[in-house]
Amino acid sequence: MTQVIWIVLAVLVTFSVGYLGYSKYLARFLELDNDNETPAHKYEDGQEYVPSKKPVLLGHHYSSIAGGAPIVGPITAGAIWGWVPALLWIAIGNPLMGSVHDFVSLSGSLRHEGKSIGYIVGEYVGEGGKNMLLWFAFLTIILVVAVFALVVGIVFNAYPEVVTASLVYIALALAFGVYLYQLNGPFIPGTVLFVAGVFAGVYAGIQFPIALFEPTAERTAEMSVIVLLGGSGSWVPGAGALGGNTAAWIPVIMAYAAIASALPVWVLLQPRDYLSSFLLYTGVGGALLAIIVGTILSSSSQPLVIDSSIGAFNGFWGVEGAGLYPLFPLLFITIACGTISGFHSLVSSGTTAKQLDKETDARLIGYGGMLGEGLLAAVALSTLAVAGFPDPAGGIGAALPNFATGGGIILTSLGLPQSFGAPFMALVLVSFLLTSTDTAVRLGRYMMEEIVGLPAGQTSSGLDLGGGIRSTLGELGRGRYTNPIIQCGLAYVMVVSGQWVVLWALFGGANQLLAALALLTGTVWLANWDKSKQLYSTGVPMAVMVAITVLGLGWLAFYQNIYQTIIVGGASGVQLFATIIQTLLALTLIGLALALVKKGYDNISTVRESYGGGVVEPSDD
Fold first, then answer.
1. Nearest to residue 332, comparing CAs of 155, 486, 548?
2. How far apart are CA 94 and CA 10, in angstroms?
3. For this UniProt entry, which segments traverse the membrane (predicted)?
């Protein structure tokens, strides 16, 4: 039988070559120079623009970009089409496409006052392109918040130990922010003390698991769970589809995300992400090390070999239990964030660019951070391989427990009992999701600030109302306190509707399309910067992602929805309404992408034909 170690080795080899070789070339190509003043120093305000130590910012960035998608995606894709196609897309696509995407997005934002990709594209193709991209990004953010909050609720229900551990490390993060920025405590001793506290929180969670209502997961039946509200929670909105405990956690998670996004970055976001990054590094790095140790020493309680239920290649159409989907283009959209993610461009050009201390830090944080997410995807694929996934039709409900179960098996190679390893890996997943959720809400506010209009370095409370309807709506939309309420409110409505399939399909399609548009933005920026700049590093991945996403959304709209669900399936009522909405959104995304690609192509063609030594003037379109 094939050993799991081959998955790990393949990824480590290609990622090492990419970072040691390709990223160095890109750093020279992008002319990163520490003599240039970064936006964090130029606009330092103690609120959004805060120069940060490289390890602190790497922890924040990695925690923010790594969510549940690089776990669920590889597991689902590996089960449907086999582990070899999934591995190849992660191992090859990440260093050549995803890491380039993140690195260029971060570097481009540095040269544009820490502004978003929407602002950058607007500089060159006009306000029309800027607003289209910003609105697209804002709507994508709402989908991200909805999907991630739902997944956290599912994990909290299955692993109530994680609730306690999460509360502990959030409290520690608040204390660490005060210790570091207000008391000016020494960095290294503080790191040791507070990181130890985070891991102590894992033990506390195992001893004192918490739930709002009675958890419905089978594994919790014999546990002594502390139920705060009692009963089943059947009255909670969404309980019919999700279960009372899961449905009850979702508004709590969204309220947390809204509050966290409104606080200054030093209060919670930076210290929490930095502390939780050690948890994440331990989970990803520990699993990789355990696979190596377990293979060499055969020390795992179960053989680290690929389970017989996971095929190397299940054929172009996948396995029948999943519904027979074509490998091209759906494999790439399904894996999504493990290889390339448009959401990362919002993080890179949203929060990270506003905190970068030196330009050269962008190589490790941008390119290296995305490689770290690829390692998470490889770990997820390895957990699938070890634990097996006999029923891919189970979707997310089967995928998420699989990560914890398989991770627990892998960690036995390091002497950890599976009863500890499985909850620990569940906490790793939640840590990724929580940090990504409130970062997403903060980014959504940044998007709206640029749509409505707000000078760099300034923020709005959202409470200065008056001056007419348009002024009031603009103030509410961009406000630090009001914008998160709007985002989370819309996301919550989508979640409690019970249309998970619609949410996941829209999230995947929108996210991958946003990646293509971010690469388009980088290509346009480089073309306008200097006629000597080659455009292949960003242009080729952009073209590939446009083709993949348009074909994938086309399949979803025309075949899966119109033909299979409506014509053949005879959908009616709520299902028909959801299918129509999903189809219209998919077609809207396709049209928006093609329109922006046309604008970008026209700009690049004009620049390359008439270049006279300086940057062309921005368009007024």
1. 548
2. 12
3. 6-22, 71-92, 133-155, 162-181, 187-213, 225-242, 248-269, 278-297, 323-343, 364-389, 409-435, 485-507, 513-530, 542-562, 574-597
